[in-house]
C-alpha cells in the first residue's frame, strides 16, 4: 500500500436513521410554510383549479392521509431549491445522487401510516417537515423500528416503547432520513382538524446514481479503472457476495500519476441476510484494498470520484 494513502478521515455513516435539524435556511423554510398557510387561508374564496388538489389517500389498515404534488401549494422554484439542496447534501454525505421529486403530505386528526418498509422504493426515505412549531395536534412522529431481530434481541429482558422503536418528532425545518428497508410508519395524529395544525411534510426517496467524477479525468476515463478494481474484488467471492444486501459509497482521490491517493467510506449499510452475521468487515476491507490498488490514466491534476455501490441488486420503483 502507498505510504500517502489515508483511510483515517471520518468514519462511514452506518446508522439506520439520521436527523438533521435546521436543514434549510430559516427564512426559506418560513417562506415555504407561509405558502402552505396562504393556500389554506380564506376558505370561502377557494378555487377548484388551485384548491382541489389533495388526494385523500386511504389504504385500509395502512395509510390515511392527504397528499399532493408540492408545487401545487409551494412555488415550483422553491421546491426545486429544496430538492437541489437535498441532492447536494446527499452526494456530499452519503455519496448518493438520486433524489425523487417529493410528495407534500398532510396529516390532520385521525391520519397515520401503518408499519411497512420501502425496500423497493429507494435506499433511504427522506421526510422534511414544514409542520408548524406550535400546533393544536399531538402525534405524527415518524416511527422507525429498531434494527435487527427484535425477538432474539429481547429474549432475556423486557423492553417497550422507544426501546423497540425510534420516535422522531416532525419538528419544523427538520430532515429525517432512514434506511428504506427499516420498518417504519407515522403515529396517529389527534386533535385539531384544521390543516394549519397538521403534520405537514415533503417526503420521497434517495438512491444511487453512477459514479460522480470531478477534476482532471472524465467519467469515461475512470470507468475502466473502477471496473478492473471491482473485478479483482469479485474474484473468488462470487458465492458469498449474493448473501449481502445494501449500499456502500466511497470517495477517493486519483493523483495525477493515476494512483489512488486517498479513500474514504462515506456510507456503509451493507448487511448479511442472516441477522448478527459478522462476515462483512473483512469483505469491506478487501473492497477498499481493491479500489486502492486501482490504476487510472495519467492526468494533468487530481480527480475526485464518488462511487456508490450496492449489494443485492438495484431498487425498483413500483411500475418499473
Ligand atoms: Fe414509507
Short overview:
With 320 residues, the chain is of the alpha+beta class. Helices cover 21% and strands 30% of the residues.
Would you kindly provide a written description of the structure presented here, covering whatever features stand out?
The protein has 320 residues and is of the alpha+beta class. It has two domains: 17-207, q2cbj1_9rhob like domain (Jelly Rolls, Sandwich), CATH 2.60.120.620; 212-311, 2-Layer Sandwich (TolA/TonB C-terminal domain). 21% of the residues lie in helices and 30% in strands. The protein contains five helices and 19 strands. The protein has helices at 26-40, 48-51, 76-94, 219-234, 280-292; strands at 17-20, 55-59, 63-68, 98-99, 103-107, 112-116, 124-129, 137-138, 142-145, 165-168, 175-179, 184-186, 190-191, 199-207, 212-215, 244-254, 260-268, 271-272, 303-311. Helix 4 packs across helix 5 (280-292). The protein starts with 16 loop residues before the first strand and ends in a 9-residue tail after the last strand. Mean pLDDT is 94; it is low at 1-8. It binds fe (ii) ion. Fe (ii) ion is lined by residues 116, 118, 125, 184.
Amino acid at each position: 500500500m502507498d505510504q500517502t494513502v489515508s483511510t483515517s478521515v471520518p468514519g462511514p455513516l452506518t446508522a439506520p436513521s439520521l436527523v438533521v435539524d435546521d436543514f434549510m435556511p430559516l427564512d426559506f423554510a418560513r417562506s415555504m410554510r407561509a405558502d402552505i398557510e396562504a393556500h389554506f387561508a380564506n376558505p370561502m374564496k377557494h378555487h377548484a383549479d388551485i384548491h382541489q388538489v389533495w388526494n385523500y389517500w386511504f389504504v385500509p389498515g395502512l395509510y390515511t392521509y392527504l397528499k399532493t404534488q408540492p408545487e401545487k401549494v409551494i412555488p415550483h422554484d422553491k421546491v426545486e431549491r429544496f430538492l437541489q439542496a437535498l441532492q447536494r447534501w446527499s452526494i456530499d454525505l452519503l455519496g448518493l445522487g438520486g433524489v425523487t421529486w417529493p410528495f407534500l403530505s398532510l396529516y390532520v386528526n385521525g391520519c397515520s401510516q401503518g408499519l411497512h418498509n420501502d425496500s423497493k422504493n429507494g435506499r433511504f426515505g427522506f421526510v422534511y417537515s414544514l409542520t408548524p412549531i406550535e400546533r393544536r395536534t399531538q402525534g405524527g412522529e415518524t416511527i422507525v423500528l429498531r434494527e435487527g431481530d427484535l425477538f432474539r434481541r429481547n429474549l432475556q429482558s423486557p423492553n417497550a416503547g422507544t426501546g423497540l422503536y425510534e420516535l422522531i418528532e416532525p419538528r419544523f425545518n427538520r430532515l429525517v432520513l432512514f434506511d428504506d428497508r427499516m420498518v417504519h410508519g407515522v403515529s396517529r395524529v389527534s386533535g385539531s382538524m384544521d390543516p394549519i395544525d397538521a403534520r405537514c411534510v415533503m417526503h420521497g426517496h434517495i438512491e444511487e446514481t453512477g459514479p460522480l467524477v470531478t477534476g482532471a479525468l472524465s467519467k469515461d476515463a475512470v470507468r475502466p479503472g473502477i471496473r478492473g478494481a471491482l473485478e479483482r474484488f469479485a474474484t473468488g467471492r462470487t458465492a458469498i457476495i449474493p448473501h449481502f444486501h445494501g449500499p456502500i459509497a466511497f470517495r477517493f482521490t486519483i493523483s495525477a500519476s493515476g494512483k489512488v491517493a486517498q479513500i474514504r467510506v462515506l456510507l456503509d449499510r451493507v448487511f448479511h441476510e442472516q441477522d448478527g452475521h459478522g462476515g462483512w468487515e473483512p469483505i469491506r476491507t478487501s473492497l477498499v484494498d481493491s479500489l486502492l490498488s486501482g490504476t487510472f490514466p495519467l492526468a494533468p491534476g487530481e480527480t475526485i470520484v464518488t462511487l456508490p455501490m450496492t449489494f443485492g441488486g438495484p431498487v425498483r420503483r413500483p411500475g418499473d
